[in-house]
Amino acid sequence: MREREFWQLLDEVLGRAYGRALARDQVLVGLGNMTVVEALEQGVEPRTVWNVLCDQLEIPDERRWGKEHNAPPMPAR
Questions:
Q1: CA distances for 7 relative to 37, 77, angstroms
Q2: Three-state DSSP string of 3-57
Q3: CB–CB of 46/3 below 8 Å?
Q4: One Pfam match, by short name (predicted)?
Q5: Domains in the chain: how many in total?
Q6: 67: in domain
Q7: Distance (Å, rounded) from C-alpha 32 to C-alpha 66?
C-alpha cells in the first residue's frame, strides 16, 4: 500500500474530516504511542499503520478496506 492509497482509504472508511483529525490526534498504542502522521513520517509501512489504526478503532475486516478494495499484500520483511 502506498501512502496515497492510505489517505484515500482513510477518507473513504472514516470520512475526510474525522479521518484526518484522527490521523493527527489518535495515539496508536501498537506503534509506540505515535500518531498516524508521526508513524508515516518515521517510515512505518502504511498498511501496518492502517491495520493498527483499524484494530484500535475496532473496525471490522469487512469495512476496513472500503467498498471496492481488496486487502493489499503485506510487505516482505
A1: 11, 23
A2: HHHHHHHHHHHHCHHHHHHHHHHCCEHHHCCECHHHHHHCCCCHHHHHHHHHHHH
A3: yes
A4: DUF3046
A5: 1
A6: no
A7: 26
The Cα–Cα gap between 25 and 47 comes to 19
Is 17 part of a structural domain of the chain?
yes
- Output the pLDDT for position 76: 55
Q: Each residue of 33-71: pLDDT tens digit? A: 999 999 999 999 999 999 999 999 999 888 888 776 666
Task: Flag whether 68 is in a domain.
Answer: no
Which pLDDT belongs to residue 72?
A: 59
Q: Would you say residue 7 lies in a domain? A: yes
CA distance 28 to 25: 9
CA atoms within 13 A on the CB side of 8: 10
